[in-house]
Amino acid sequence: MSRNYKKKKKQTEAVAVTFRRYIQVVLDAVVTLYMLMILGVMPFYNQEGFTHIGTDKSVFFHKVSVNMGKAGIFLLLLYLIFTLAVYRGTKKSSSSWKTFFKENFSVTDIFACAYGISLLLSYLFSRYQSNALWGASGWYMGLYLQLMLLGIYFFISKFWKPKKWVFYVVFPVSAVVFLLGYLNRFQIYPLKMGDYGPLFISTIGNINWYCGYQVSVFFAGVVLFWQGMSYKAWQRCLLMVYVLLGFASLVTQGSNSGIMAMAVVIPVMFCLSVSDSGRMYRFWQEMVLFGAACLMTYGIQAVFGRTIDFEDVFLNLLTKKEIALFITALSFALLAVAAVDRKKKSHLDKVWRTLARVCVGLLILLIVTFTALLTANTLRPGCIGELSGNPLFTFSNTWGSNRGATWKAGALCFWEQDILHKLVGVGPDAMEAYIYHGGSSRLREIVTSTFLSARLTNAHNEWLTVLVNTGILGFVSYVGMMLSGMVRMISRKGRNIIVCACGFCLLGYTANNMFSFQQSMNVATVFVIFGMGEAFLSSKRGE
Fold first, then answer.
1. Which of the two ends of the chain, N or C, has the fewest CB atoms closer than 10 A to its terminal CB?
2. Cβ atoms within 10 A of the Cβ of 294, count?
3. 58-67 confidence digits (pLDDT tens)
4. Do the beta carbons of residue 384 and residue 393 sit within 8 Å?
5. In whole angstroms, what is the distance from residue 227 CA to residue 504 CA?
6. Pick the residue with more confidence: 391 or 3?
């Protein structure tokens, strides 16, 4: 090989490296702009207030994703071309590519790729391809959107240079959303959004949509306070106000799935605090803020005569004076113990660990006992005495705000499939199409008797819906993607608080969606945060 050829080859590679660097800069700018549109603009976007606000946000998400996606894919192709030019012809090209994939692809990425493949298989083998392409009318969670979500995850995690300020944009935006939602509950409407009612609040709309958005962002602020960065006094005060406002809004928003999410996140935080006295101290500070949020809500009603325009078991329970005072007093007492432990280094970690084990044990016992009573009373009505008359202990179509019917329908949809469609599902977001065009008469009877003319598009349980739509292959890959992501991120506690915060957002979203569903507001938000967390996780500097 001549010297001139080698020189020319090096020059070509140098040019390719330079162009690739410029493309990375432009691609990073495009991805950053997209993230700001989803995190900063979409929560407020609407055309005519609450009138078709869900459709408005879905259309906004699709338009922004498609337009940004076109630019992103074009830049990505150029990036790949110049990357191939850099690696082409090198003696260690094979080992270089192996190193590249090993360093840049995680177990979460592998599950994400598997989910993408399972989506394509589900669509190809679906009997309802016209429905599965875009998804059910009004929801649009079909193949295109699911691939968009994976695209969001990969573009952000691989081509976005982590910037902390983009992450912090979430807080002022969500604080405004929470404040409006809280005020709306007291029939105070700073914005003109059309016909208000108990089921529509803030700038998000339906309380299920609102709750889905809230749990996808709020716990990031909770984790930042809990982790205890070296904040200035004013920053710490702002975080405390944010956490107080978030708890107040979460308690009053009306969707029980949000309370379930909190019931998962709070114990996990407590268990992760037992070995760190500072973290335990801040945990009980936040519990005091939670009690204060409940007391504040009670006080507004008692002192100012403002009534909440929504009736709910958990809302009524948590804002009852005696319960709110008990939560606050208990939290203050344990905060005092944690403060002494932190200051005098009393080494109470064994006590906290024992308390954590007792709490986890009681929680497991409560779940097992409730499940046993529910099962027994459903199979043999009246066998549990006075509790038999409580509808909570009878699994019927109306159980859990009609979750009984939606879960039965989801389970029956999966059970009725042949082996192939148990593996690949009925098609992305094609559960509705199967129910009304291919399901059994028993399945349709469950749905129509419960929802009458309203159409059921999902099982109101994200994982069950994924199982029906994409089969066992899609279920395993999707669950693997979400669980591996949240575990890897939460395990970074004490080392990278932004990564940990993103992991808790995934946990809150997942816990909420055990009783809820994907919609453009929550799923777009959480996948941006998912990609952001992965980008910070893989970044050496995290800045």
1. N
2. 25
3. 999 999 999 9
4. yes
5. 12
6. 391
Whole-angstrom Cα distance, residue 534 to residue 530? 6
Which one, of 481, 542, 514, lies nearest residue 257 by Cα?
Answer: 514
Q: Quick: pLDDT tens for 108-117.
A: 999 999 999 9
Distances (CA, A) of 164 to 24, 119, 363, 447: 18, 33, 36, 46
97 — pLDDT class (breaks 50, 70, 90): low
d(CA 404, CA 435): 16
Mean pLDDT, the chain, integer: 89
Strand (E) positions, 404-538?
none
DSSP 3-state of 51: strand
Structure confidence at residue 20 (pLDDT): 78
Residue carrying structure tokens 């609450």: 50
Query: Is residue 433 within 8 Å of 136, Cβ to Cβ?
Result: yes
d(CA 54, CA 40): 17
d(CA 152, CA 158): 10
Matching residue, tokens 């949000």: 258
Alpha-carbon span 452 to 429, nearest angstrom: 21
- The amino acid present at 258, given as its one-letter code, is G
Please, is 233 exposed, middle or buried when counting C-beta atoms within 10 Å of its C-beta (0-12, 13-18, 19+)?
exposed
Q: Which two tokens stand for residue 119?
A: 């989506």
pLDDT surpassing 80 at residue 509? yes
Cα–Cα dist 178/181, whole Å = 5
Q: How many CA atoms lie within 13 A of 9 on its CB side?
A: 10
- The count of other CB atoms within 10 Å of the CB of residue 251 is 25
Which residue from 391, 376, 443 is spatially nearest to 414, judged by alpha carbons? 443
Q: Which helix (H) or strand (E) holds 463?
A: helix 462-490
CA 309 – CA 394 distance, rounded (Å): 28
- Mind listing the pLDDT tens digit for each residue in 459-507? 999 999 999 999 999 999 999 999 999 999 999 887 889 999 999 999 9
Alpha-carbon distance of 422 to 412, in angstroms, equals 12
Taking CA atoms, 314 is separated from 85, 248, 262, 264, 403, in Å, by 61, 13, 12, 15, 17
- Cα–Cα–Cα angle for 445, 451, 457, rounded to 5 degrees: 90
Q: How many other CB atoms sit within 10 Å of the CB of residue 78?
A: 16
Residue 23's pLDDT is what? 86
C-alpha–C-alpha distance, residues 354 and 371, integer Å: 26
Query: In which band, very low, low, confident or very high, does the pLDDT at 38 lie, cut at 50, 70 and 90?
Result: very high
Q: Would you call 259 exposed, middle or buried from its count of C-beta atoms within 10 A (0-12, 13-18, 19+)? A: buried
Place of tokens 């497991």: 364
Helices (H) and strands (E) counted in the chain, each on its own, are 22, 2
Q: Is 539 helix (H, G, I), strand (E, B) or coil?
A: coil
